[in-house]
Design a protein that fits this description.
The protein is mainly beta. The protein is built from six helices and 33 strands. It has one domain (about 1-625): TonB-dependent receptor, beta-barrel domain (Maltoporin, Chain A, Beta Barrel), CATH 2.40.170. The chain is globular and about 65 Å long.
């Protein structure tokens, strides 16, 4: 970490000196600090061509196939979470229109419940930043945003998908806008039996079995509205309702399951922006209601959860000249949860003040941020962050950042009976990275390559340990993580309007426990479980106005599954393909898309003894106006 901090400091100092004679650059004010104050961080924007390929799938599928994120799935159609740079799923924030979707009860967000075509912008930011994103943004974050436009009249999109294992998905989006008002409504229904065959490697002879108790039914409805109140004011209202009924299959090593779970969510967010000549005022508020019901009749288990979260923010942005910008804001979160695992309803209150200062010019960007927070009356350590970008050459950019990040205990960790611990300390640590990016343009092509090196040290990491027959959360871990990322992209415009694009990402992560989790457990200096040391992804797409072809390949390396590293899960490869044929009739577009997943019919598991399906297909008919 000292190496990263030293390089960032030297980079900022030398770059500032080189900027004394630069011309002034125009500063553009935007509503969210997440776009404006992340200099020095790597942001992976999922462009529309990739989203169009994966638009019928979940956010978990998209991130697993196209980004360096590690997606942990407990089986096809079941819960899926994301982690970045060796972090846990609780240490990766997922933000929807600026609001964190991580549950204050579980600390997680299930990515399998989020359809790709539900938002307009998807960005993955690697590296922790507690100052900007608050609790849980340790390894990085996923930013999800809706975007509406005025003066677009009517627009419509509909899609119908059929696939193996009873997969059936219907989607429709209707929108309308004038010069002062825009509205869009979307709805989706998805059902699947998920009854694929697999080889049960836990039994002698690896017999072939069929997945049982794995059906799901998923409904989602969203509305987005945008008002132009005046030439300087806008108001946006987003609502999101969903319900998913799932059967939960057993692992290979377990007897047949009859477990079932229903997830229900209602989320509303309101954003108001006022542009001024030299800045902006913004206010946001959101109300979330999440419910979960779990039953397992064979064991007599029935549990439920009902959580309400209210979040409010107000922030001010001020330009100072052409190169400087300052932002300051207040944040408040209230959450209340009723849970069958608690003696009584529990609440949390969190208040924070944050600020960001930015210097932007043609060649240099320096952003410094900080956050002070009170969590239920206890002060969280000050969270600073510094990011630097320097355009050393017209084709070469240097980047670096160093930041403090943290994660506050969840309600389950504090109050779950019998051993919830309300005195748990927040997880906290320092992280940073340095890197470079080379971008070159030619008349008919462009190419980009980049490398990042990162480090992170976390203390007071919370882990659940068994105490007799029941789990107990403790501040029991110190972890050190370092690694490197390589990424490249090449795009070529060929004859007859054909465009070819190739993407590659390779990621090496070395994550270790620096202390024993419990005395004598032989976990000190061992690798953190479920974190692959090596992953890489490749995508090749050939696009034409009428036809597009995409091929992707992913490799996930070996993962340890026990804290003493005595057992591991095998590495695996997956290959996927998609072909789309489009038909245009004036303003109308029809598209036929064929997807093939796991082309090589690889037998693999992401989590131990949780099989994934072999080769399977989906076919989609879509219409756009």
């Amino acid at each position: 970490m000292r190496i990263v901090y030293t390089i960032c400091t030297l980079l900022a100092a030398s770059a500032t000196q080189a900027q004394l004679h630069d011309s002034l650059a125009e500063v553009q004010i935007q509503a969210h600090r997440f776009q404006q104050y992340r200099a020095g961080y790597r942001s992976i924007y999922i462009d529309s061509s990739i989203r169009n390929i994966y638009h019928t799938m979940s956010l978990a599928d998209l991130l697993a196939h196209t980004t360096p994120a590690v997606v942990r799935s407990y089986g096809y159609g079941t819960a899926a979470t994301v982690s970045l740079r060796g972090s846990t799923a609780e240490q990766t924030a997922v933000l929807w229109n600026g609001f964190n979707l991580q549950s204050h009860v579980l600390g997680l967000f299930n990515l399998s419940l989020f359809p790709v075509d539900w938002v307009d912008d998807i960005t993955l930011q690697t590296g922790g930043n507690g100052a900007l994103f608050g609790s849980g943004a340790v390894g990085g974050c996923v930013l999800l945003n809706t975007r509406l436009s005025f003066d677009k009249s009517w627009n419509t999109k509909a899609a119908f998908t059929l696939g193996n294992y009873g997969f059936n998905r219907q989607f429709i989006s209707l929108g309308y806008s004038t010069g002062k008002y825009a509205i869009r409504a979307k709805t989706m229904r998805l059902s699947s039996r998920n009854d694929f065959s697999f080889a049960n490697t836990s039994l002698p002879g690896n017999p072939t079995q069929r997945m049982a108790n794995a059906q799901q039914l998923h409904w989602v409805v969203t509305t987005d509205q945008l008002w132009r109140i005046s030439s300087t004011q806008t108001l946006q209202l987003n609502t999101w309702w969903q319900q998913q009924n799932m059967e939960l299959p057993s692992a290979m090593t377990e007897p047949a399951s009859d477990a079932r779970q229903t997830d229900y969510a209602l989320r509303t967010a309101l954003n108001w922006n006022l542009k001024r000549k030299t800045g902006m005022v913004a206010a946001r508020t959101a109300l979330f209601n999440d419910k979960l019901n779990y039953t397992k009749q064979s064991s007599g288990i029935q549990s439920s959860m009902n959580a309400v979260t209210w979040v409010s923010e107000v922030e001010f942005i001020q330009k100072i000249g052409q190169k400087l910008r300052f932002q300051s804001g207040l944040h408040y979160t209230f959450a209340r949860a009723e849970n069958s695992g608690y003696h009584s309803p529990k609440e949390l209150n969190r208040a924070a003040w944050y600020y960001s200062a930015a210097y932007n010019s043609n060649r240099l960007r320096i952003h410094q941020s900080g956050r002070i927070e009170l969590a239920d009356g206890r002060r969280v350590p000050f969270m600073p962050a510094l990011g630097v970008e320097f355009q050393l050459h017209k084709k070469l950019k240097l980047t670096g950042n160093v930041a403090r990040s943290y994660r506050l205990p969840t309600l389950n960790e504090m109050y779950w009976q019998p051993y919830g611990n309300s005195q748990l300390l927040p997880e906290s640590g320092w992280n940073g990275d340095v890197g470079f990016r080379i971008l070159n343009h030619w008349s008919h092509a462009q190419a980009e390559v980049g490398v990042n090196y990162f480090e992170r040290l976390m203390i007071n990491q919370i882990i659940w340990l068994m105490r007799g027959m029941d789990p107990e959360p403790l501040n029991a871990r110190k972890t050190y993580t370092q690694g490197a990322e390589f990424y490249g992209r090449a795009a070529v415009n060929l004859a007859n309007g054909i465009r070819a694009v190739w993407n590659i990402q390779m990621n090496y992560t070395h994550a270790q426990n620096k202390e024993s989790i419990r005395p004598g457990d032989n976990s000190a200096d061992k690798y953190v479980i479920f974190i692959p040391r090596l992953t890489h992804q490749h995508q090749l797409s050939i696009e034409h106005r009428l036809v597009s072809i995409a091929l992707s390949h992913q490799y996930t390396g070996m993962r340890y599954i026990t804290t003493d590293n005595s057992q591991s899960a095998d590495a695996y490869h997956t290959t996927n393909a998609a072909v789309t044929y489009r038909i245009y009739r004036k303003l109308h577009q029809f598209a036929l898309t064929w997807h093939a997943f796991n082309l090589t019919n690889q037998a693999y598991t992401i989590m131990p003894f949780r099989p994934m399906p072999g080769r399977n297909y989906q076919f989609t008919i879509s219409y756009t106006l």
